[in-house]
Amino acid sequence: MSYPSVMVIGGSLPRATLSVVRTLGRRGIPVFGGDSRRLAPPAFSRYTRRWFSYPSGDAAKAHDVITAHVNAWRPAVLLPVGNQGWAVILRHFADYAGVTAVIPSPGWDLFERLRDKATLAALAEEHEVPVPLTFRPQTHEEALALRHRLPYPVLLKPRGGEAGVGIVRADGEHQLTEALTQSGEVPLIQQYVDGEDLDLTLCCVHGRPVAVSTYVTLRKYPEPYGVPVACRTTRDDELMEIGTRFLGALRYHGVANLDFRRDRRDGRPKLLDFNPRLAGTTEVSVASGVDLPWVLYRLALGEEPQRLLSSKSGVEVRWPIGEFQHLLATRDKRSALRALWRWRRVATNVSLADPLPHLAEAVVAVHRSLRRTRWFPSRGEPRVV
Questions:
Q1: How far apart (Å, rounded) are the C-alpha atoms in residues 221 and 176?
Q2: Which CATH number is associated with domain 195-350?
Q3: CA 117 from chain center: how many Å?
Q4: Which one, out of 44, 183, 278, 380, has a CA that is 20 to 30 A from the CA of 291?
């Protein structure tokens, strides 16, 4: 059976993009793609038939390059993955929708509102979704005025940040004042929640869920606010109920990834972040039996897939390069080694049949690790004051 082609726009989310390329390519779907990174691992996949790069940091030029390739290659479906790619597509949606079928999306207005952590917290409170105690100062002076009554420890978060970049923890008034002095923008301030990290990924059709997966994060890199390097699939009915009710109220259209943490104080999951796109951990959803890229592809073509729920609970998914970085960075190497030694019901993103993306990923990982040393300092890394 022959399938219509798809163009995948990475948007600097390489792990998810590689998962999308592979899961669709293995079904025999012709996959084209593009990304702002020249050394994007998906570009080297055996399932990628054509690839291009577009400029980073210049949305207008990125749009010009992407539209030129869409018009030249004529994919039947356009599948953006990361925020960067989605921002370009949604700003010029009519230009793309006139040429190809774009996968379901919430639209530009809701996309931007949900990416803004202050607006997200307000929406969650409005719809009775549990969130950490949140303060939304409008100026640095307002933020400083809160210092005597904040429930420390607190986290200072960039309103539009992602992947944990720029988050600062303050354990008292002095640390808060220091962090605000060094902050360029006025941050969102949230009470720190200690507990287990939970993830919920849903695909909805105008608020009606058609695919749902849940999982827990076991390890991250870099700690404490980095991306997951090991997750375990679950079947969390409470999380599903919260998420489906929230997205139903929003009449949400498309895929969304919601980050929660189960508060040790009251046992309730608190919403920390909302990604109006595929998760970087899309591999975990696929491992749980919920093939989200396939669902989105079919929806774009006007098909109605059968509703999918996480069916494989207890499967651990690891990203070996990230695990190695975590092992080098963690102080508790004994516990990390003990966790790595367990291989029962463990899957990885490594494919011996498709090895070249991992070589590219290794090169990128080494470069990033060097940037985190004093020899190659990086801007905007998560830090604790």
A1: 25
A2: 3.30.470.20
A3: 14
A4: 44
Q: Where are the beta strands (DSSP E) in the chain?
A: 6-9, 31-35, 48-53, 77-80, 101-102, 134-135, 154-157, 168-170, 188-191, 195-205, 208-221, 227-234, 254-263, 269-275, 308-309, 316-318, 346-348, 383-384
More confident residue, 311 or 13: 13
Please choose, from the candidates 120, 113, 69, the residue with its C-alpha nearest in 3D space to the C-alpha of residue 95.
69
With cut-offs at 50, 70 and 90, classify the pLDDT of residue 373: low
Mean pLDDT of 27-40: 95
- Residue-level pLDDT at 364: 77
What architecture does CATH give domain 6-102? 3-Layer(aba) Sandwich (3.40)
DSSP 112: H
164-218 per-position pLDDT tens digit: 678 999 999 999 999 999 888 899 999 999 999 999 999 999 999 999 999 999 9
Q: How far apart are CA 291 and CA 312, in angstroms?
A: 12
Smallest CA-to-CA distance from 382 within 221, 270, 245, 147 is with: 221
Tell me the CA distances in angstroms from 148 to 39, 144, 176, one per residue in order: 48, 9, 10
Nearest to 143 by CA among 190, 180, 100: 180
Backbone torsions φ then ψ of 215, nearest 5 degrees: -160, 165
What does the longest C-alpha to C-alpha distance in the chain come to?
66
Q: pLDDT digits over 106-137, tens only?
A: 999 999 999 999 999 999 999 999 999 999 99
